[in-house]
Design brief:
about 220 residues; alpha/beta; binds guanosine-5'-diphosphate; binds magnesium ion
């Protein structure tokens, strides 16, 4: 019996397209942030907070990945930010080709920062590079303390973990320390930002760090 390694081909082809995206972003001086999380952890809420904090300082665009609806793209458009919806149908992640194809309908060239909200899923998005500068994982306090151990790939791949919904900690049955410790077990290096997108607590620290990454990345891209 012969096994055909289809998965390997798909991953390799994705890597090639991700590199092309990367070169395109670099050429046009666009800093790209890929936001990943389980459904409902707060990706769009974090985007709203982040946009409110940095709008005017950078030209921002957003690509929204969703299975079916345009709810999130509508939320971003309501802020006056150009947004583009990729509906993936039944596909549980964005891939580099989908992002590449969006350039035909969405002129990203003028943006300083492009946020990509991935499809809500704790597994597949981590396996598909998009050509981004930064992978940010949103992990909410109410998802269960064991998630980093159950889904190590995504937590491991993250350049930063935003620990969202800290306002709900009193009801989550878990301490911030335990969540922190469990993330650290699979990702020893990434900064962890405890925030509440509801109350804005902690958001300033996240913004300060993100702005430093954007400025540093754009300088590097321009070099
Ligand atoms: N209490 C609380 N609710 C939040 C917070 N952040 C987001 N939410 C709520 O969680 C739900 C899902 O948020 P959303 O940003 O749409 O998550 P996404 O699916 O990851 O984009 C919404 O009802 C938000 O209002 C938070 O920090 N605290
Ligand atoms: Mg969303």
């Amino acid at each position: 019996m012969h096994l055909i390694p289809v998965g390997t081909d798909i991953m390799q082809s994705n890597e090639e397209t991700a590199l092309e995206n990367r070169a395109f972003f670099k050429k046009h001086g666009i800093y790209v942030v890929n936001l990943m999380s389980a459904p409902g952890a707060g990706k769009t809420s974090l985007l709203e907070r982040t946009i409110a904090a940095i709008n005017g300082k950078y030209k921002i665009g957003v690509i929204e990945g969703d299975l079916v609806t345009t709810y999130d793209a509508d939320r971003i458009a309501a802020l006056g930010i150009p947004s583009y919806q990729i509906t993936t149908g039944s596909v549980c992640h964005l891939d580099a080709k989908m992002v590449h194809n969006s350039f035909h309908g969405f002129d990203v060239k003028g943006f300083d920062v492009l946020f990509i909200e991935n499809v809500g899923n704790l597994v597949c998005p981590a396996e598909f590079n998009l050509g981004e500068d930064l992978k940010v994982m949103v992990y909410s306090t109410v998802e269960g303390a064991e998630k980093p151990k159950k889904y190590p790939l995504m937590f491991h791949a993250a350049d930063a973990v935003v620990l969202n919904k800290i306002d709900l900690l009193p009801y989550a049955g878990v301490s911030a320390n335990e969540l922190h410790r469990n993330v650290r077990e699979v990702n020893p290096g990434a900064p962890i930002f405890p925030v509440s997108c509801r109350t804005a607590e902690g958001v300033d620290d996240w913004i300060k760090w993100l702005r430093a990454r954007i400025d540093e990345g754009r300088l590097k891209n321009a070099a």
